[in-house]
Amino acid sequence: MRRIALRRVLAVLLSLALLVPAHDEESTIGRLLESTRALEYPSALFEVCVVADNCTDRTAEVARAAGARVEERFDEHARGKGYALRWLLARLRERGGRYDAFVVLDADTVVAPDLLRRLDAHFEAGSQVVQVYYSVLNVGESPLATLRYVALAALHYLRPLGRSRLGLSAGLKGNGMGFLASVLDEYGWEWFTLAEDVELHLALVAAGLRVDFVPETTVLADMPVTYTQAESQNERWERGRIEMLRERGLGLVLDGIRHRDPVRLDAVAEQLIPPLSVPVVLGGAVLAGSVLFRARAAALLAAFGVAGQLGYILAALALVRAPWRVYRSLAYAPGYIGWKVWLYGRSLGAKGGGAWIRTERNPSPPDPLSLARERGSNGVS
What we know:
It is a single chain. By secondary structure, the protein is an alpha/beta fold. It has helices at about 1-10, 30-35, 60-65, 80-95, 115-125, 145-165, 180-185, 195-205, 225-260, 260-270, 275-290, 295-320, 325-330, 335-350, 370-380, and strands spanning about 15-20, 45-55, 70-75, 100-105, 110, 130-135, 175-180, 210-220. The longest helix is centred in the middle third of the chain and has 33 residues, at about 225-260. About 40% of the residues are buried.
């Protein structure tokens, strides 16, 4: 009887490949693989596939010892996450790998135990592309890491949730992305800049596909704990996005208008929005100037705008059920906001997105699985 029940389960659930691009991640890849062993999903139906890309450390050795399927890639000319994923997908096809869907995970991630079960349910309900809530593992390790949690609560939870409720596309965040195999079979992986998740999302919505948000579960990753660690990472993100908009932004907007497609227009508009720190600083400057020159109407409008930004952040924190220490970290926000504005301004004047370089991080506590379980059940609605 038990064997019959198991066969029924195996016949219904999808076969999944977890794709992990890793560049010099020997200190974190073992923790990710440990968390995948706790997944509430039949082990026969998923495989962790790591591409150790141009590694100079023991990433491949550690991943093999933990039971992952490991492919090693060395190419000094085609470097980056996009190239690594395209190569890995080609290798899996060459070796006869048959999967119903693929999930992309960063090597410094810890996954919630219910991750694959939740993804399978969304695919079963009709989703073709999905994005999981991607948040911060090392919350509380430093004010900077905690403020990053605040930012991602808005950017990676509140916004995708709102878009999903409005029938729009939730967007792709680079980590915790899921694709039916038929989608990648048709569109491949042809995006190689440091904004490859943005470019992929825009290509998918242009083809009539929508990314569905999966708020019930999480992937958590370490974030830099010092401004020195965070600077190169954030600058690459912003420069990659800005460069993509310079090259394709106007064409994408005109294309959305021509097709009268709100999903496409919204996906482009999302990329035109600067970091939250920029409108906060502009609103504060207008408010201060209005008070100085006694422009009552302008002061009221500016105050309303600044209050709206604060309400936006507080709503995001309430939705993800942030612990009280996260609210206390807002006392450090002025310094963080000034740093983000300075970095964004510098990125506007730069050219190119830079190379795929591992950001230095402090690996999180030795028991990340308990954190994943806690946040998977209590950290999101």
